[in-house]
Please model this.
Amino acid sequence: MIDIKKESRGYIAHGVSACAGCGMELILRTVLNALGQDTTLVIPPGCSALFCGFGKETGLKVSTFQGNLENSAAYAAGIRAGYEVQGNNHSTVVAFAGDGGTLDIGLQSLSGMMERGDDVLYICYDNEAYMNTGIQGSSATPLGAWTTTTPTGKPVYKKDLLGIAMAHGIPYCASASVANIKDMTKKVEKAKSIQGPKLLHIHCPCPTGWGSAPSKSIEVSKKAVQTGAWVLYECEDGNIKLNNPPKELKAVQEYTKLQKRFSGINEEQLVALQMGITKNFERLMRMQAE
Ligand SMILES: Cc1ncc(C[n+]2csc(CCOP(=O)(O)OP(=O)(O)O)c2C)c(N)n1
Ligand code: SF4
Ligand SMILES: [Mg+2]
Model:
């Protein structure tokens, strides 16, 4: 097999682009650089589908299939099963889906994949709303954040995707962020080396939906990690490990003030958001110690 990456730069064609400062594009480039040519991708509708292309054109240099929003995990499991029948146990099969396609619409098929133990790497890039259809709130939207369907700020907390994955007892799951590309690459490589279902939940800055400056995407992501709004950790065979956790969390305003989606947040919501973040961080630290 010719490794296209050696022939050109990366596995995404030049000239194919998302909005300026999009975290999703950086995540997909990083993931494919880590996985290599022998990868088969399933991508549902969402912003990442633009890389699949239209008609006879594609922006991706690995095998890719665009499925439906509700069943990326089922498609990936089916492809894996087909490869096994053909005697192919070397290709990495990956579902690459947004938060809406994962935590809401595709959750049932993801649960089935994890329960059956299919050898699939599932990656959710989490930009915390249905961005491709105009910024509707999802169950991954944080408390207090504006979206077109939560005009006064989302009234409830974000769903805990890794908690759901851990409850299925899968061999490996982890969170990652563009705030730390080295850490993300390590986790993708580790997931590739493990047999069975793996899930990576990757925080994905979206300047268009978050109202943040395109040039500040990495800074915003770093603030998410420093405030505990996004915790970097992994769970391997049931053992939780936080990856370089901050010694002390910064106040959540350090993160929210960089994004217009939080500009209308009221005092009560801000207190609740801070409380949820602190509680979640302390809970994970306790789970690590157990
Ligand atoms: C079952 C179904 N419902 C709705 C849609 C319309 N739709 C296409 S893309 C999209 C947004 C998906 O959001 P997410 O998975 O978070 O990805 P993002 O656009 O944020 O990258 C929606 C709702 C669809 N294709 N299928
Ligand atoms: S709307 Fe957000 S996720 Fe979609 S391409 Fe633009 S920056 Fe990326
Ligand atoms: Mg989304």
